Amino acid sequence: MPILKNILLDSLHGRLLILETLVLAGFLGTAGVALYNAFRNSAETAMREKLQGHVYALLAAADEDKDGKMLLPKILPDTRFTNPTSGLYALVVANSGTFRWRSPSLTGQTQKFLKPQPPGAISWHYWNVDERTMLVLNYGIIWEDYQGQGIMYTFAVAADIAPLTNEIQGFRQTLWLWLGGLAGILLIAQGLILNWGLKPLRQVATDLRDIETGAAERLTGQYPKELQGLTGNLNALLNNTRTKQQRYRNSLDDLAHSLKTPLAILRNAPSQPESFQEFFVLVQEQVSRMDAIIQHQLRRAATVGHGPLARAILIRPLIERLTRSINKVYSDKHKQISLNIAPKTRFFGDEGDLLELLGNLIDNAFKYGKHQIQVSAYPAAKQDIHPGLILKIEDDGPGIEPELFEKLMQRGSRLDESIPGEGIGLAVAFDIISLYKGKLEATHSKLGGACLLVYWPPL
Length: 459
Fold this sequence. Notes:
By secondary structure, the chain is of the alpha+beta class. Helix content is 51%, strand content 19%. A hairpin with a 5-residue loop joins strand 6 (132-144) and strand 7 (150-160).
């Protein structure tokens, strides 16, 4: 039983089936009890009304003697009053004790079920005799004789409730039999409905096993709209994972390829007839070059890119913090920085990617700008969720000609060799933007220099 319990609780189908079974049992149980009580009350009420009808029939059949006193006939309207085994008995007694009448069915039966009642009063009680239970009605009346004197009588009618009990028990058995059959049918129907309704979830599990075994690369089934968000995020997660793996492989290949040249130079350097100073400078240059290559490839490999569960990052506080840090590095240049960013503008992605990108672009603006730098950010689309982002970094420097911009995207390319740097900042920025399926463009700024425009599409 514990094993079966764990299996059912570990299964979504089992949990729903248990819950629906409990709800169905509670509903049908409550309905059954309500129907049973209603039928029993109705049957008992009907029996009481019959007993009252017998009292009225006896009153209607009553006659008077020569003094005007009550006289009941020997032949009664209901023949059951004449049969001792019929289970229907009647007894009429004057409250003064001067008159007593009983139905022929009471022959040989006890007559202690009558309880005197005042005129107009009605009482009910159950009377147990000879292993039988009787429902007794006592009804009090007043009868005037010819002298105008009122005589009080009590009519008592008793009926065996065995037929009523049998009828109620038969109804109860039939009711629970039907309700049990209906519950079984509903449980089977619910099981089939659950099996059909949860089929897409089982299909997702099957497709995921195919992905695990290498038989498939993504979820390709036709899923209901309630699961499309889940399957879409799973596919995005799988694509993101494959992209990362491929990026790691590419970065390792690029790193190995990029290090071949400086290593070859260092390997051949001792055989060249150069002075120690020249050899030292050569080693320093190649070591610096290899360090720059390694740092670039590490940053490139660590870039996260779009993810299915991207976190919303407020742009303005991050840029304010970044510009304060860069401004300290270039404190001697006294650049004026202006931000055109709405307070709630958000970026959906990795904060490290955004810092790496903005750090390179704003650092270039500090390097080549003269006095003014402006950073702008606003949503790319009017959507409430993942609306995309547009970034503009402008300066008042010499600017970038569009035909030379593609050259700057190449690692190590620089336009102004007089300014310190390795020439890989824009290449790193371009790699990050590409991973987010965005665009990087260079135009002319209203400030007179370069304007680097970054566009992230909506997710």
